[in-house]
């Protein structure tokens, strides 16, 4: 069962991943241009 703490943890991990992913995408877009 998912507790609120686990749910928050999952969202935090996903958020961190999205931030890193955005940075990588921006880097590669600059290289592509």
UniProtKB/TrEMBL annotation:
Protein name: IS982 family transposase
Species this protein is from: termite gut metagenome
Record lineage: unclassified sequences, metagenomes, organismal metagenomes
């Amino acid at each position: 069962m998912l507790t609120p703490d686990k749910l928050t943890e999952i969202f935090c991990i996903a958020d961190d991943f999205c931030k890193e992913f955005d940075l990588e995408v921006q880097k590669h877009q600059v290289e592509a241009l």
